[in-house]
Specification:
Cytochrome p450, 3-stranded antiparallel β-sheet, 17 helices, globular, binds protoporphyrin IX containing FE
Amino acid sequence: MTAADAIEVVGEDFFTDPHTYHERWRAGGPVHRVLLPEGWAGWVIIGYSEARAALSDPRLSRSPALIKDAVEAKGGTAYVGDANNILTAHMLASDPPDHTRLRHLVSKEFTSRRIAALRPRIEQITAGLVDAMASRADEPIDLIEEFAFPLPVSVICELLGVPYADRDRFRAWSHTLVGGPGTIEDRQAAGFAMATFLQELIAAKRANPGSDLLSALAVQSDGDRLTELELLSMAFLLLVAGHETTVNLIANGTYALLRDRDRYAELLSAPAAHASAAVEELLRHSGPVNWALTRVTTAPLTIGDKEIPAGEIVFIALSAANRDPDRFASPAIVEIDRDTGGHLAFGHGIHYCLGAPLARLEGQIAFTALLERFPDITLAEPAFEPQWRPGFLIHGMENLPVRLTKR
Ligand code: HEM
């Protein structure tokens, strides 16, 4: 760290338009010192190759205890999990060897066969939602409430064996926990409520196992298995990761397409044939994860042109890396046939998204159904500007009012 490393102060307006911040910083290099609204001081990586390298650098730790120490050492306040570690004993909050073991135990159940087998059910859920929307086709509707939220949440609930009827409760806890307005006390209360809810659910699964993933994890018996705490924490991770993200792939992606009628027309010419490429490009262009989860340096390291001491907080801006012009030409433009290989919307390295195959499948089915059924869909108001949710992790809007048919 040198005196020349000026600190960029990040304000609340970042959430409305992270790309403007990222582009302003880009001329000054791939790595910057930043101070966030909650008093967190650290470094943000915005360059593609530096971000990709950082995501697989073992000197960047995800340990909640080390992160808390580093935040507090600089005068910030941190809620990175409760004292009993209930919601942080999972793979995304651990380093090897714990991470390796936890990921292996879940991957055994989260197989590509289990995911592929979900296709007919995802198509059925999608068709049901699309039919329900069609019956209200002459009024403006909120696409998030009617489609982008219920689709992935129904799927994750069925996959895990969580009652869909409880969705409003865990949606509220999850929103509080992954960021957004609220105090540390609010987050603690939401964490406690979520933990109690999952604890009761797991006890019920153990007493009466079903064919769902949580039952399979709860009754794993051969050899190494998840402890009670790890199972609870894993259930939390899968539930939150499974519904905070795909909602925003569908909503952000639809918004990007509706802002650009030419791309929309291109996709409309053959929705199913273009679906896979479209999902990858929409993930790159307007992916649901803005900055990856916080890391901390366990040794001094050089990233780009910066020397970062040990014990420093590091943020990896996936959304900025995915718009690095050195990697993706004209990055702010949606180009369905561009080479999106290596985009970082699902992260990279050991924490690469476990749910990526499921998210891709859901995205492809969702966009295909939406476009095939509602080729005339438009924003309800042409000048609509989304209200973006606060938080550095998730890039998602509060609602997306659309009209499904021509007026
Ligand atoms: C479009 C949807 C999704 C996106 C963009 C996304 C993105 C990500 C990203 C960026 C990471 C790595 C974070 C980091 O390194 O800091 C991650 C990890 C993870 N995601 Fe996803 N995700 C999506 C959907 C899902 C779904 C549907 C599930 C599961 C049901 C899921 C489960 C996970 C898990 C378990 C991890 C942790 C992996 C590990 O630590 O080894 N994700 N996701």
